Amino acid sequence: MTTSPNARLDAFMARLVERNPGEPEFHQAVHEVAHSVMPYIEAHPKYAKANVLERLTEPDRAIVFRVTWQDDDGNIRVNKAYRVQFNNAIGPYKGGLRFHPSVNLGVLKFLGFEQVFKNSLTGLPMGGAKGGSDFDPKGKSDDEVMRFCHAMMTELWRHIGKDTDVPAGDIGVGAREVGYLFGQYKRLQNQWGGVLTGKSIDYGGSLIRTEATGYGTVYFVQEMLQRLGESCEGKTAVVSGSGNVATYTIEKLLHLGAKPLTASDSGGFIYDPDGIDEEKLAWIEELKTVRRGRISEYAKEFGCEYFEGQRPWGIKADLAFPSATQNELNESDAKALVKNGVQAIGEGANMPTTPDGVKVFQDAKILYGLGKAANAGGVAVSGLEQSQNSLRLSWTREEVDERLKAIMASIHAKCVEYGYDGDHVDYVKGANTAGFVKIADSVIAYGVM
Ligand code: NDP
């Protein structure tokens, strides 16, 4: 009896959900990839014979541990921490650490799974992993954050290494946290090595790493537009978030002559019809990284509107950059953007659009740059940071930026190669299939393991 591809996809997903109960974000991430690559697997039976998809959706291992630390009042506090080492077929595990109360095993499995494909797309030898903790750095003193990071690394250090697993930042983990984590690793291992990326320039960081995810996302959108004879210049943009990815997305949009209109945090968003310029952006960066304040303060400072508890997708713009968190853009948000004539989406965040929202973009045939392709610039420059650490060299800002641009152009080209159907480019299919082929071929080459 023959079964249809859809029935095979449903059966595959039913088994996955049964094996991984209560992990909706992981199910969502796998479904997107499985849906994209199923036709390719059907056309190339060696992948089905080797059961590659099933093997790629089970992490190599997941480490779960307790972090005990002391707050400023002397109370003993306990958090849960994780490292999901998803797949190292094409290189040492690589992926960020997230500190946020919403962190759980399912969220990190979704992020680790996405990371495997993203890292494959960069063309660099990096496997995929993700880690983090339900620790919330918001409202904590620098000393508390330091004690937490030191305590977390006291367990994590034995599982990572420059040729084993190289973590980096993500939500809630920026330069301050990476400094504390790296310091403790160095102390415990008595070895200075490129075991974390996103380090400060003073001790082994790469120029452009801080900017790379945001810059790379805009480069990717520029590539999509240029293919159609257009560019970012003169276009308006809605951006969500006001952290690392959002601020450098806004900066690169300004470099390319676009006009960013919005920024947000978990409290709401600001809409500045005059545009967020360099000066206002510097103010946001100071607000978020030094004073650690709320985006609502921008509205008071610059006299514009603040929309409490809302997201910016109802604002009319040519380009949209979801740069905060997963599932922050749903079906009705996507419909509002399309109705307002949006031309391109660049996902700085990981999986920010719900599946219904993605369908709206795909049906409207707008340029939809999904996260694992569009935001791969961050991990790509992390890879370049590792290279510089190994070479004991520091490349110039221009050199790193040129490499980043070339990597984003090459990711775009792979998406077109695997996603062009003679009429338009399906970037979801293109990115997932291109990422899959390289890992799948490596997995098969190793034999049964
Ligand atoms: P940051 O912590 O620097 O900033 C996160 C921003 O998103 C903040 O403005 C934060 O607001 C907002 N945010 C976080 N959670 C929520 C939520 N549940 N609802 C609404 N707003 C929220 O993180 P990054 O900029 O580094 O990361 C942003 C996204 O980009 C994430 O999806 C991350 O996985 C992805 N990414 C990051 C990379 C990197 O290099 N940093 C690389 C590739 C992808 P608030 O301060 O109020 O919480």
Summarize this entry quickly:
This protein is α/β, with parallel strands linked by helices and 449 residues long. 50% of the residues lie in helices and 15% in strands. It has three domains: 5-56, Glutamate Dehydrogenase, Chain A, domain 3 (Orthogonal Bundle), CATH 1.10.285; 61-192, Leucine Dehydrogenase, chain A, domain 1 (Rossmann fold, 3-Layer(aba) Sandwich); 212-369, NAD(P)-binding Rossmann-like Domain (Rossmann fold), CATH 3.40.50.720.
- The overall pLDDT average reads 97
Number of helices: 17
Taken together, the total number of domains comes to 3
CATH topology of the largest domain: Rossmann fold
Total number of strands = 13
Query: Which band does the percent of strand residues land in?
Result: 5-15%
CATH superfamily of the largest domain: NAD(P)-binding Rossmann-like Domain
Give start-end ranges of low-pLDDT stretches: none
Distance from N terminus to C terminus (CA atoms, Å) equals: 30 Å
Give the spatial strand order of the biggest sheet.
1-2-4-3-5
The helix/strand order is HHHHEEEHEHEHHEHEEEHHEEHEHEHHHH
Secondary structure class reads: alpha/beta
Task: Specify the CATH architecture of the largest domain.
Answer: 3-Layer(aba) Sandwich
Radius of gyration: 21 Å
- What top-tier CATH class of the largest domain fits best? Alpha Beta
- Largest beta sheet, briefly? 5 strands, mixed
User: Helix share of residues?
Assistant: 40-55%
Can you tell me the overall shape? globular
Ligands and ions found: NADPH dihydro-nicotinamide-adenine-dinucleotide phosphate
